[in-house]
Amino acid sequence: MTGSFFELVWKVAARVPRGKVTTYGAIARALGSRGAARTVGWAMRAAPAGSKLPCHRVVKATGELSPEDAFGGPGVQRLLLEDEGVTFNAQGGVDMKRHLWIP
Description:
Elements lengths: L4 H9 L8 E2 H7 L6 H9 L12 E2 L16 H8 L12 H4 L4
Parallel strand pairs: 1-2
Helix pairs in contact: 1-3, 2-3
């Protein structure tokens, strides 16, 4: 893949299937940048408005969702994922055994 690191992140994020999630770290590893999970997070925050990237499908390795302001309000990311059939554990995180997709 060619492009800036952010553009490469967006290309990987665009491939996450409906009903699945991936992690910031998994995207970083897929791009050969182990340890760049935080930079992947910055790239997701900087995704172009109107790009239709499924940013809501990228979560922390524990299944924890993004800060509530990332999607415009409390619970928005969870609602988007639930609409795709993603299930959650008792702690409120994504059921990673069931929904994790590794690029």
